[in-house]
Amino acid sequence: MRQLIKNIQYTLLGVLMLCTAAQAAETKYRVQSPDGRIQLSLTDHESQLSYSLSWKGRTVLRDSEISLFPESSLSIDASEIEAMDQIWKPIWGQHSLMKDHCRQLRLKMHAGDLQYELLCRAYNDGVAFRFVVPEQAGKNGADIEYITEYNPLPKAEYWAPRTGAHEAAGPFMLDQAKAGSRAVMPTVIETDDDRFIGILESDLYSAERFEASSLLVDPSTMRASSSELYTGSKKIAKHEIKYAGEEVITPWRVILVGEQVGDLVVSQMPLNLAAPCELDDTSWIKPGKCLWDWRVLGYEADGFTYGVNTESYKRFIDFAAKYDIEYFLADAKWITKATPGKIIPPADLDIDAVMAYAAEKGVDVQLYYDRRKAKILNDDRVFPYYRGLGATGIKYGFMKNKAYFTRDATRRAAANQLLVNYHDDPCAMTGIERTLPNAITREYCHAQQDCKRAFSPSSFLKMAFLNALSGPLDQANGIFGLNGVNRGNRKYAPEELESFNSTVASEAARVLVSFGGLTFLPDAPEEYEKKADLFEFLQKMPATWDDSLIINSSMAEYITTARRSGDEWFVGSVIDENGGTLEIPLDFLEKEVTYTVTYYEDAPDTHFVTNRESYQVRMGEVTRSDTVAAKMAPGGGHCMWIRPAPACKPTGE
Known about the structure:
It comes from Pontiella agarivorans. By secondary structure, this protein is an alpha+beta fold.
């Protein structure tokens, strides 16, 4: 536990209460957020613990059980409140400075002769819980089950991701839920007074004996329960788990609150709860944009057809070098088979020549690894082998949705200075990008065209609010050749032709909205060059940010995301199948500065089904007193690149 809280300064505010056998059967403990608007109350009633949560004077969650040893009667020995306030810098992310400011209630308790603690943190935008059981040799036998209930007020509705290549689910009325149904985290609840609650876990990385939890849903309540602990690196014991004297640290169970659903997406709380960076040297970890070959295979341009060969890969690398794109990714087809300790590429792909060419051009290469087909390169050998080829990252497919595997593989990748992008139903492992920042992104979503299926504008918007709560996403936005894709002129076209419904302005905006440490650009270089004026938005956009805001948000309907790098802002809006206009106030800009803005937007005749590739680019000037009316076609989008006008750059304080 000392390792988890090092470098954090605590200020003891006071001891609230000492519990003795003579006290009443029910005792309450309270902790407030630093701004006083959130109050977490815990009640010890007949040796069982429950909590309730209020925000701005209104109940958000009613009495809900929380326990680690549910079959054992607990006694609370002492409680104290500590203040935490620090600033830390991530290696990359949505914010360049993170403010970790909260109050923590520490309950010291015992079940029988077993000592343990419950940590309860209250931030201005939510609360979190974690149990810590120190090593206690000889004190064995207590049943372990990490339970957290969530009981919102009546008439709440909820949404949840679906694993694999599926659209997120919801909305569902909680009071009409089928008893015993399941919801994947992160789950979002909307209360009857239009407030939003996000339910997720953070720092599963540090909870080395736990697997990720889902939610058991019954009418009026949700319940997260973990009773699976590892007895070894890969062996899992699945029921009737008993404490065996070792240290046990649970994941943080996190509850976010917001007036808008977009408030949850840019919360710093999940990362603040994660363990600090474990790496001494992070200079090799570089976020960036990445070209990708998979959706381009079979594309024809000027008599050339893209395939898995040396010439095609060199064309990608040339384009990346020309437009300052940091990476190129070769996907699964670069592997034909594996012999002991070696991967065999296709006959007309000279991977050594490609690596040398990329190095000459200043472009880094990432390589896919399919664990099912290349098992001869086991997990001890694959990372040094890829590093030996000259790769700077690995896209890891079919690696199992398991916490222990994700933790171990990310450590091995870091030891070989490889970025890692997990695909094919990965473990969410929220917060790992703070602890091991080489965990650069993951496909914890339904990526565009996955399993040859496209998804709708509204389903993208659901994932922008749900899946994004888990951390950085690889969603493969940014298709510019929408008409050709829909006609099937690629090897991996949509299963149903004319079903990939979007607009090119929306595709550009989605790249900004869906954050990941690697920003994948999935279309052919020729398609980007055909629309070079629109591609400018993607070219100029960085992959890591100083600040991120959600300005407009409505679940499955629309979003406006604004991200800042230095003194430049990139703003992207996406809307559902109905289209419409969003008002975007620019009050986030500096005072007394005039800005040049480039608008990349739907044209008057754009439509996400009938006229997908129509767009317009125009320029103007704005100040912080302006409000932009972003008019979007059905299924459309709107982008702005805002930077100080040449004569008006801020001079600093």
